[in-house]
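To the wet lab folks,

You asked to see what we're planning to order before we commit. Fair enough. Below is the target structure as tokens, and below that is the sequence we designed to fit it. If anything looks off to you, flag it before the synthesis order goes out.
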């Protein structure tokens, strides 16, 4: 029995979200006036409450202090919570609703409305503005909705996104910043235009490497996702090996995180079906050689080079260079992984 109608509101939001997302039979954007009240009701639901979030975080923190296995069982993930609470589901539906309305403008070739951004969808903007104010909604769960969907918010209205960067990623409230950032970096693809918008947040996130003390699940995961985003941007030429942000990243990254970088690049090479553009190959070689030179001066960094096996196994690098660097990696790390793939290529 749903005495407070919360789960009914969540079910309505989920149903409408499915309708907005459907490729076969989407809800027509012309019905926006009829469907909006169903979403709005969910955004006013009291759950998640501050008391619920506090209880979840306290349980996770206790588990972390006493037993890693217990922590795994009780760890709190605000983003997962957003998909299981009425207001969280409804706030996600607000963004999907706005995308549906925008799609209607595109079909009508209504460039004037498209240029207006959220000014053409004021009902969505009003709700988004209201819940961005921590005085109205202090929930870390709801803040993850903004973070994970930051690329879509930027797509819907670049001006609104720019003006609200400091509200979405609220550095003055660490719990809110982590909620938004962790959801963004962990669940969003690295888009170039979004990087241009959030470059300052990426730089700030680099400063936070290794210092995630919140009692949520997998506190170090954002650092690994951050590494993957930065390497994706490096691959595309958005940043270079001498860039301030990459230099800062390597100055803070510990050995496992540095090893993850090399593994991620190698796996990306191996998973790329087509030929890797020459300029990308050269870019990766420059990064590799810089890391090798650094390791020669700081032997404690040598173990990360065991991940070169993924690079070698990709067969995307010219043979002479690749073989020479395999020997270099073996000299530094004394082994390479995954060794069976290296042997297969050899």
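Sequence we intend to order:
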């Amino acid at each position: 029995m749903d005495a407070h109608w919360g789960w009914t509101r969540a079910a309505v939001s989920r149903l409408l979200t499915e309708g907005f997302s459907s490729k076969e039979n989407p809800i027509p954007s012309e019905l926006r006036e009829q469907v909006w009240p169903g979403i709005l009701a969910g955004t006013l639901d009291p759950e998640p409450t501050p008391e619920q979030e506090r209880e979840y975080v306290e349980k996770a923190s206790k588990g972390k202090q006493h037993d890693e296995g217990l922590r795994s069982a009780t760890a709190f993930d605000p983003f997962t919570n957003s998909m299981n609470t009425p207001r969280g589901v409804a706030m996600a539906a607000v963004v999907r609703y706005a995308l549906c309305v925008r799609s209607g403008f595109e079909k009508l070739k209504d460039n004037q409305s498209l240029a207006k951004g959220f000014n053409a969808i004021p009902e969505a903007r009003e709700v988004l503005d209201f819940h961005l104010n921590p005085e109205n909604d202090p929930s870390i769960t709801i803040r993850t909705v903004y973070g994970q969907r930051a690329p879509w918010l930027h797509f819907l209205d670049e001006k609104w996104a720019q003006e609200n960067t400091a509200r979405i990623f609220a550095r003055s409230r660490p719990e809110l910043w982590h909620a938004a950032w962790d959801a963004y970096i962990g669940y969003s693809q690295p888009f170039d235009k979004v990087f241009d918008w959030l470059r300052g947040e990426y730089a700030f996130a680099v400063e936070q490497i290794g210092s995630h003390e919140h009692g949520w699940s997998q506190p170090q995961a954002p650092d690994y996702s951050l590494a993957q985003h930065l390497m994706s941007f490096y691959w595309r030429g958005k940043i270079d090996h001498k860039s301030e942000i990459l230099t800062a990243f390597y100055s803070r990254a510990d050995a496992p995180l540095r090893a993850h970088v090399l593994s991620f690049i190698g796996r990306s090479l191996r998973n790329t079906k087509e030929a890797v553009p020459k300029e990308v190959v050269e870019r990766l070689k420059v990064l590799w050689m810089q890391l090798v030179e650094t390791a020669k001066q700081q032997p404690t960094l040598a173990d990360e080079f065991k991940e070169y096996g993924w690079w070698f196994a990709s067969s995307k690098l010219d043979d002479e260079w690749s073989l020479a660097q395999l020997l270099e990696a073996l000299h530094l790390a004394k082994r390479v992984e995954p060794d069976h793939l290296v042997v297969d290529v050899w």
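Structural context that might help your review: Residues 68-73 have pLDDT under 50 and may be disordered. Residues 169 and 178 are 8 Å apart (CA to CA).

Thanks,
Computational group
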